Amino acid sequence: MGVKTVLSSIFFLPGTDSFSKNGTDYPTKFRVTLYDSLKRTVMIMNRTIMKRTFGAWMATIFSSSMNGATAFALKFAAENVHTPVGKDGEGAYTAATKGCFDVIDMATPLVLQEISEQHINPDRAFHVADYGTADAGTSLGLLTKVVRSVRKRTSGDDKKEVVIHYEDQLNNEWKSVFNHALGNIKVTDAYNNEIDTPFNLGGVFVEANGVGFHQQCYASGSIDLGVSFTAMHWLSSSPSSLKGSKYMHAARCLDGPPEAEKLQAESDWYKILTARSRELSPGGRFICVNFCVSKEGYFLGQTDVGSSMWDSFAYAWNKLAQDGIINEDEQLGVSFPNYYRTTEEFLAGIERCPDLKLVSAEEKIVRCPYREQYIDSDSKMSAEDYAKTFVPTTRTWSHSTFKTALSDKRSDEEKEKILEQFWSNYEELVAQSPETHGMDYVHSYLVIEKV
Known about the structure:
Elements: H1 3-10, E1 19-21, E2 24-26, H2 31-48, H3 54-62, H4 66-78, H5 92-96, H6 99-117, E3 126-131, H7 140-153, E4 162-167, H8 174-181, E5 187-188, E6 194-195, E7 204-209, E8 223-229, H9 259-279, E9 280-293, H10 309-322, H11 328-331, E10 341-342, H12 343-351, E11 356-366, H13 369-376, H14 383-405, H15 412-432, E12 441-450
């Protein structure tokens, strides 16, 4: 029985008006999205994981809501786009990604300003969603201020309940999320300042969601404030357009990003916005701080200061090939499954959503705190120590992509050994001229209102 026949017998085919499950008729609006998602996913399943029976898989889908089923299908197809680094529960991302604290600090006045102006319902809890939270450590300080600001707006009501919804992908470090959110792991910023958790304020409730921000994650009209920092550049699936090319990332292509990457990013951004427009309550705000290509052509790790991080990646990776550690296919097999949109691309997506209104948009650069501290310390830290301190912040988000480029014929242990050499190559390069190496952040700071 083919994929089309199976889906037809269980669901419906495009062109029908509805389908039934357990005596319930589901409307037309699920028609194309769910059918196409399931079709693509089943094809992937047939090719790669035949050990799972189709019947068991379909039973899993039917056990969720229709929105959950669509998300499950998309998540299944895209589950290997990005994998967190580190042992779940230890909070490795926050410990090694200190620049994100500065990015969020720069956004904090925007967030608090919107809270001071938006309507707050006095008769129910205030709901905040942190989309793409990673291990939840870097946003703790902001969310603590959010809770206090909301309570200040409600006549200083210290008992005003606030619900914080942490959202990320299914394979996220969820133990780390709760260890950070509940205060089980101490969090410090780039300057060793300890960050408190909003949970300690009392009357704050913590929840988690693994659907993925490309889909609707929460009930319609339920979210009062949505925030997202350094997350929505990840694509729902990877076109892998750069495999076979010397370029690792779409932003590096001299002739502009490949069309497949651009179209995927455009489609994903629209999905993200339409999902948020459903979730937000009337007058609710969504503050999205996302990687961008600035009007000057700057982007993450490649600005007007220092060496390009992407040149350094290329050097360290190509050295593996020069040393005979990886073959040519692996050398040219890196294709980052994320996309740095221009501000114009962000705004074009917002204009397509009639229920959303742009409040403000601004591009900002946050300098690499590791490099800034090294320079300010007058080189009291050795070059080698700086390299070992800085390089992990580039590793947290890129390691899984480099690993994906290695041949499936290699064991996981062999892949990790190769990657350790790759990161060692990078550290050796940084140690040669530490003051020139860093990872500047380039973001578009967007404030969006549900009308």
